[in-house]
Automatic annotation (TrEMBL):
Protein name: Uncharacterized protein
UniProt xrefs under SUPFAM superfamilies: Trypsin-like serine proteases
Coiled-coil regions listed in the entry: none
SMART domains: Tryp_SPc
GO MF entry, a single one: serine-type endopeptidase activity
Species for this entry: Geospiza parvula (Small tree-finch)
Upper lineage: Eukaryota, Metazoa, Chordata, Craniata, Vertebrata
Keywords: Disulfide bond, Hydrolase, Protease, Serine protease
Stored InterPro entries: Peptidase_S1_PA, Peptidase_S1_PA_chymotrypsin, Peptidase_S1A, Trypsin_dom, TRYPSIN_HIS, TRYPSIN_SER
Residues of the signal peptide: none
GO-annotated biological processes: proteolysis
C-alpha cells in the first residue's frame, strides 16, 4: 500500500530494505513451498498429513504496531523462515524445525519489527546467530519437542519496540484463550510474506480430544498443545511457525507454533504448538548456561 510512497524518506534505510527485499523470491524456484523443502522427513513419515503450516493466514488481522514487542523475525539466507520470541536480551525462542537443513550461521534475527517494508531504522535491531540450541528430545519425524533457542551475537537494546516476554508457569487449560502472531506468507504459492505482523486469537483444545481418532488420531505427544482459531476457519500460516503461543492476562509464552495439517481448514486437524511449560526447566538452564553446541564461544 504505502510502500512506494515511503521509499523516498527511507533512503537512509536502504541497506535494511535491500536485505528485506531479497526475501520474497524463495530459493529454488521450482519449489512451491518452503515447507516441503524444510520438512521432508516429517511430511513423509507422518503419511503426508502432518506438515509445515499452510500458505495463507486465514482470519487473522494486522497487529497494532509494536503491540507485541517480543516478536522477532527469523530469516535464513534469502528465504524467510519463522517467527520467534525474545526471552532474554541474548536469546530468542523458536521451533526446532525452522532450522532443518538451513545454514544457521547465515540466520538473522530482527527484533522491533512491525512492517519489514517501511519500519523506522531505530525501531529495529538485527542480529546474527552465535549458537543454536535445539531441544535434545526434538524428533523431526513425530515433531515432538519442537523447540530451539537461538543465542544472538549481541545484546538487544530494550526499548518501546523491543521487549522480553516471560515464560508461562502453567499449562493453558482447555478452553483458555491465547493468541499468536507472525509474518506468515499471504499468497497461495507461499512466496510473498505479509509485510506487517498479523495476529489471531485462538482457543486451547483438550489434548485427549485432539489425540482421539476423529482428530490427530494418536499423533499428539505429551508436550504438545492443540489449538483452534477463535474465528471459524482461521488458522496460522506457513512462516508463522516458531512464533510464540501467548496466553494469560499478563502475556507469557506457553508454546511455540509447530505444525498443522496440509488442509488448514480441516477442523479435525487443528494446529499444534510445542509446550514450553513442560520444558521450562530446560529453557531456563540454556538461558543461564548455553548448550555448548554450535560455534565455539570466545567472542565475549
Ligand atoms: C496420544 O495417543 C497415542 C496413541 O494412543 C499415545 O501413545 C499418546 O501417548 C497419546 N498422547 C497423549 C498426550 O496422551
Amino acid at each position: 500500500m504505502g510502500a512506494r510512497g515511503c521509499l523516498g524518506p527511507l533512503l537512509p534505510l536502504l541497506p535494511l530494505l535491500l536485505l528485506l527485499l531479497l526475501l520474497p523470491p524463495f530459493p529454488g524456484s521450482g519449489v512451491t513451498s518452503v515447507g516441503s523443502e524444510s520438512l521432508p522427513g516429517a511430511v513423509a513419515a507422518a503419511g503426508g498429513d502432518r506438515t509445515w503450516l499452510q500458505p495463507s493466514i486465514i482470519g487473522g488481522h494486522e497487529a497494532k504496531r509494536h503491540s507485541r514487542p517480543y516478536m522477532a523475525f527469523l530469516q535464513f539466507g534469502a528465504g524467510h523462515a519463522c517467527g520467534a520470541a525474545l526471552l532474554h536480551r541474548r536469546w530468542a525462542l523458536t521451533a526446532a524445525h525452522c532450522l532443518s537443513g538451513r545454514p544457521w550461521h547465515k540466520g538473522r534475527l530482527l527484533v522491533g519489527l512491525h512492517n519489514w517494508r517501511d519500519d523506522e531504522e531505530e525501531d529495529t535491531q538485527s542480529f546474527t546467530i552465535r549458537t543454536v540450541c535445539p531441544h535434545p528430545g526434538y524428533d523431526r519425524r513425530m515433531m515432538e519437542n519442537d523447540l530451539l533457542l537461538l543465542q544472538l551475537d549481541g545484546k538487544v537494546t530494550l526499548s518501546r519496540t523491543r521487549q522480553l516476554i516471560p515464560l508461562a508457569s502453567r499449562e493453558p487449560a482447555p478452553g483458555a484463550r491465547c493468541s499468536l502472531a507472525g509474518w506468515g506468507v499471504v499468497d497461495p504459492q507461499g512466496r510473498r510474506l505479509s509485510p506487517t505482523l498479523q495476529e489471531m486469537d485462538v482457543t486451547v483444545m483438550d489434548t485427549r480430544m485432539c489425540n482421539n481418532s476423529r482428530f490427530w488420531h494418536g499423533k499428539i505427544g505429551p508436550a504438545m498443545i492443540c489449538f483452534q482459531g477463535q474465528r471459524r476457519g482461521s488458522a496460522p500460516a506457513k512462516g508463522d511457525s516458531g512464533g510464540p503461543l501467548v496466553c494469560g492476562k499478563r502475556p507469557a509464552v506457553a508454546g511455540v507454533v509447530s505444525f498443522s495439517s496440509k488442509n488448514a481448514a480441516d477442523p479435525f486437524k487443528p494446529p499444534v504448538a510445542a509446550s514450553t511449560v513442560k520444558h521450562k526447566k530446560w529453557i531456563q538452564k540454556i538461558l543461564r548456561r548455553g548448550c555448548g553446541s554450535g560455534q565455539p564461544d570466545h567472542t565475549g
